[in-house]
Design a protein that fits this description.
The chain is α+β, with helices and mostly antiparallel strands. The protein has two domains: 72 residues, 3-Layer(aba) Sandwich (Glutaredoxin); 120 residues, Glutathione S-transferase Yfyf (Class Pi), Chain A, domain 2 (Up-down Bundle). A four-stranded mixed beta sheet has the order 2-1-3-4, covered by helices on one side. Helix 1 packs across helix 6, helix 1 packs antiparallel against helix 8 and helix 5 crosses helix 7.
Length: 222
């Protein structure tokens, strides 16, 4: 069976997990903590980053963007990139929005302060950094509302990698209970639709010893 090396709070790992489940691809998930810099893992991916996919024939594909394109080209029966050049461009734009902009302005702030400091025992979270993350996420939730007010999903009328990218990042923050859903009802409705998809239910099962998820995290209806 193919294997996917991933880490719970890596949004890019979650993105590939969701995509593979959407495409009904069976795989064995293997937890890899990149900061341990295991030699065996470095041989597979010198960048020491997750996710890394090991195919059934032993082929190794690393790098989230390479994996995204690989999955789309190798398993096209469930398309997630869009049907034409313009729609694919919009999907890629939205992926970049969440994997770069949202990551820098929100994800890294929360994960760095609340997760990495917890695991690496580097002290207590910096309240100023957390406040910055709370301020920044409001802009992104407003943008989600703007987009979903105009079409069914973030990049158009079809569910795509754009929605998967957004869900991968937001689910990490939602695990911590730091998404102000009560002020963004349309964004909440969009995320509720995502949570009801079978591919997301695997993500919602994540539970880390010593760090329980928010009470509503696994609730499909919030």
């Amino acid at each position: 069976m193919r294997q996917l090396y991933h880490y719970w709070f890596s949004p890019l790992s979650r993105k590939i997990r969701i995509a593979m489940l959407e495409k009904s691809l069976e795989f064995e998930p293997i937890i890899e903590l990149p900061w341990l810099a295991r030699h065996e893992f470095a041989v597979m991916n010198p960048a020491l980053s997750v996710p890394v996919l090991v195919e059934e024939d032993g082929s190794i594909i690393s790098g989230a963007y390479a994996l995204l394109e690989y999955l789309e080209e190798s398993y096209p029966s469930v398309p997630l990139m869009g049907k034409d050049a313009k729609s694919r461009a919009e999907v890629r734009r939205m992926c970049d929005w969440f994997d770069v902009k949202f990551d820098q302005e929100v994800t890294r702030l929360f994960i760095g302060e609340k997760i990495m400091k917890h695991f690496l025992k580097r002290g207590t979270p910096n309240s100023e950094v957390i406040r910055a993350g709370m301020h920044n996420i409001k802009h992104h939730l407003s943008y989600i509302e703007y987009l979903t007010d105009r079409h069914s999903w973030l990049a158009g009328e079809e569910f795509s990698y754009a929605d998967i990218s957004a869900a991968a990042h937001i689910s990490c923050i939602d695990y911590l209970g730091d998404v102000p859903w009560d002020k963004y009802e349309r964004a909440k409705e969009w995320y509720a639709r995502l949570k009801s998809r079978p591919s997301m239910r695997d993500i919602l099962k994540d539970s880390i010893l010593g760090l329980a998820p928010a009470a509503h995290y696994k609730n499909l209806d919030f």
